[in-house]
Write a structure and sequence with these properties.
Shape: globular
Strand content: 15-25%
Number of strands: 21
Low-confidence stretches: 1-27, 529-541, 717-730
Structural class: alpha+beta
Largest sheet: 6 strands, antiparallel
Helix content: 40-55%
């Protein structure tokens, strides 16, 4: 969708508002109440500015045309408190009563750039959390009776808030006991378990103490934007970077995934193709204790937050970084190894489109079916805009895979696997659809002014004109629904699986820095505090240090070419399978602030085939198989068990009883597993024996391939009736 003119209008209007806001930043802020006994986290000037401008953007350009008022303020407060303490394990009833003074004032405070209330609430939470850690650490060495018939209520969400710390202490003590029982059941000695749990709580205490104002601001902004609609999101700078890297499926760095373990950064995975992989000097399990930029001095990173360490290691391609590393298996007191790497652009191939080929037999005839697994609709827009001819994109990757399946593997049909695909680039959804249909409408988009735009595939020909299928599930959303909906409306293929998520809204990503005059950034830089004790403020007054973050703003709604919105209802498959996910827990229709379903007039599209007659036979055959399928029988049992567990809020603290319950569950699971393995001609496994990846079986995929086999059996003349001009060989 082309929002260029609309964004230009937004930019002009926003600049006037933003300029006025910056000049108003000199007003004296409301004093933030101090919470005794804890290091108080306070907002900085740029966060105060951002909150005002996000309010302006939402009120002016959000599709819902909503005003931030007392009603929204109340929703924000409830969401914010829930985000901090969903289980009611930390706040006291007196805290909640005190917070009520903010119920109808947050809207006005946000418009004035006042964040004192929410940050005060967080500091109270931090104090309670610190009290919890101290108390729990003291309880770990308590001599517990693991044969008592007491219980631990782990879900207190529907219970009233505790009236005192003493009242909560019993809950905290039982949690410690429950964790010790879990460690006991793992088979280690109780003395060792006490040591393990002590280190666990000390590590949690240490990491919690590192929370900064960016963390708190992100929690608050999530509560704010989700009160407006589920998909308008503000990202602090670090989160914005993560989002954009995920969208582009690339980043610049050394090519390693990191994790924090006992205050030390550890390499969890080496990404194939990156500098770390090519250099062969690093391996999973190595620990990084210091980082140096180029030939500069080393900075010790032990005890640092993981995200801060990551920013030191990542950097522009072509630049040098040096690491002090304790190799895996060596003691931390060992002499570190110094490793030098030149950063590169890393392409995340493991998160990109992939293909495989499977052969099925349908009524005595073999068919080769190519399966393309697509985890998201991604595109490296930065690389594309810079003129990189090899930029990463969904359509480019899938086109290559289709070419390989068609010309090398010689498949009879192709299935696009969109299970778990939460969406991504709208542009990629349109261009990908164009690989399977000839020129024509793909999606309709209605903006907040009510204007409807029809986005079309304008490229003649297709990459694949043979039998085609699409797999979706409850986690398939947004761009996945555009693609699946278009394929279904055109009659281009068979949609299989369970009802999709139902996200029918379009977000525009707005870099707040790009809406600001450089002179304004200079003024903001002069206002930002440099007190390092509160967390994340820049260390200098350079405007380049100022990063206002990014907002993904819901500015439009998309509709299928036939006129129906996917909002709330999603895409209903032609052949429906039982859902692996609880439909009443996951989906747009479970979101209180979601936009409604509606319809607009159909676009001027022409279906390539009417598959109604074919679908009836596919549904009948699939239903018969599912009725006799052990896998689907177990799915139904799992769904029933999940509903039962969902209603439970407590667990026994009698070790023998808990062990018996878990042994029974493990025995049931093992018996099930062996029943399925026997069905597939695989040997039985024993308790504790690991299942190899080769032994795993995707029965949803298997049923989808059988549906495709039926499809090819029942519609032999389908391809000839498509009337699509095949694209030249790729």
């Amino acid at each position: 969708m082309d929002f260029k003119s609309f964004k230009e209008m937004l930019k002009r209007i926003f600049f006037v508002i933003f300029t006025a806001a910056v000049l108003a930043c000199h007003a004296d802020p409301k004093p933030q109440p101090i919470v005794e006994g804890v290091t108080n986290v306070i907002p900085d000037e740029q966060q105060k500015l951002v909150i005002k401008e996000v309010v302006n953007l939402i009120e002016s350009y959000n599709y819902k045309k909503i005003q931030i008022n007392d009603s929204i303020s109340s929703l924000i407060l409830d969401r914010y408190i829930k985000a901090l303490d969903q289980g009611k394990n930390y706040f006291l009833a007196s805290d909640i009563k005190e917070f009520e003074k903010y119920r109808t004032t947050l809207d006005d405070d946000f418009k004035n750039g006042d964040l004192s209330g929410p940050f005060y609430i967080y500091n109270v939470y931090a104090k309670r959390l610190n009290e919890y850690f101290k108390y729990s650490l003291a309880q770990i060495k308590t001599k517990y009776d693991f044969n008592q018939n007491d219980t631990y209520v782990y879900d207190r969400e529907k219970l009233p808030w505790a009236v005192s710390s003493t009242a909560l202490n019993e809950t905290w003590k039982k949690r410690v006991k429950y964790e010790l029982i879990n460690l006991n059941l793992a088979g280690t000695a109780q003395e060792k378990n006490v040591e393990t749990l002590t280190k666990r709580y000390q590590n949690l205490q240490s990491q919690t103490s590192k929370t900064n104002n960016q963390d708190v601001f992100q929690i608050l902004m999530d509560a704010f934007t989700e009160s407006v609609d589920p998909h308008t999101n503000y990202f602090v700078p670090a989160r914005a970077t993560e989002f954009n890297e995920e969208m582009s499926r690339s980043f610049e760095g050394i090519g390693a995934r990191l994790q924090l373990e006992n205050e030390v950064v550890k390499i969890s995975e080496i990404i194939p193709g990156g500098p770390a992989f090519k250099g062969k000097q690093l391996t999973a399990g190595d620990r990084i204790i210091a980082v140096a930029q180029g030939d500069g001095e080393f900075v010790d990173v032990v005890g640092w937050r993981l995200d801060v360490t990551v920013t030191k290691i990542k950097g522009p391609k072509g630049t040098k970084v040096r690491l002090k590393v304790i190799p895996v298996g060596k003691e931390m007191s060992s002499k570190p190894v110094i490793i030098e790497l030149v950063r590169e652009k890393i392409i995340l191939e493991d998160q990109s489109a992939k293909k495989k080929v499977k052969t099925i037999n349908s009524n005595g005839k073999n068919y080769k079916i190519g399966i393309i697994s697509l985890p998201a609709f991604y595109a490296d827009f930065k690389a594309a805009n810079s003129g990189d001819k090899n930029y990463k994109s969904t359509t480019r990757d899938v086109r290559k895979l289709v070419d390989s399946l068609k010309n090398i593997d010689k498949v009879d049909a192709i299935v696009m696997d969109l299970r778990g695909n939460g969406g991504g680039s709208l542009v990629e959804a349109i261009s990908l659809t164009g690989l399977f249909i000839d020129k024509g409408p793909v999606v309709q988009v209605k903006d907040l002014r009510g204007k409807i735009e029809v986005d079309e595939d304008e490229t003649s020909g297709v990459a694949w004109d043979g039998p085609f299928g699409v797999m979706i599930d409850r986690l398939s959303a947004s761009a996945s629904e555009i693609f699946a909906g278009a394929i279904q409306d055109y009659g281009r293929g068979i949609i299989m699986g369970s009802q999709s998520y139902g996200k029918g809204t379009v977000q525009s990503s707005i870099d707040l820095n790009k809406l600001v005059n450089p002179g304004m950034l200079q003024k903001i830089a002069g206002l930002v505090t440099r007190d390092k004790t509160i967390g994340t403020s820049p260390t200098g007054a350079n405007p380049a240090d100022i990063n206002l973050g990014q907002i993904n703003l819901t500015m439009a709604k998309f509709y299928r070419v036939a006129g129906s919105s996917t909002q709330h209802k999603g895409v209903t498959p032609d052949v429906v399978f039982p859902s692996l996910y609880p439909m009443d827990k996951i989906g747009e229709d479970t979101e209180p602030s979601a936009l409604p379903w509606d319809v607009i007039p159909s676009s001027n599209f022409k279906a390539v085939a009417n598959l109604s007659a074919v679908k009836a036979g596919l549904i009948k055959n699939s239903e018969q198989r599912i009725a006799n399928s052990l896998d689907f029988k177990f799915i139904k049992q799992d769904i029933a068990d999940l509903k039962k567990r969902d209603a439970e809020v407590s667990v026994t603290l009698n070790e023998n009883k808990l062990k018996a319950e878990r042994d029974a569950q493990e025995a049931k699971s093992l018996a099930r597993q062996n029943e399925l393995r026997a069905l597939r001609g695989l040997p039985a496994i024993k308790k504790g024996e690991k299942v190899t990846k080769q032994d795993t079986f995707d029965f949803i995929e298997d049923e989808s391939l059988k549906v495709m086999g039926d499809f090819m059996q029942q519609s032999g003349n389908y391809v000839m009736n498509l009337g699509i001009a095949t694209a030249p060989k790729l």
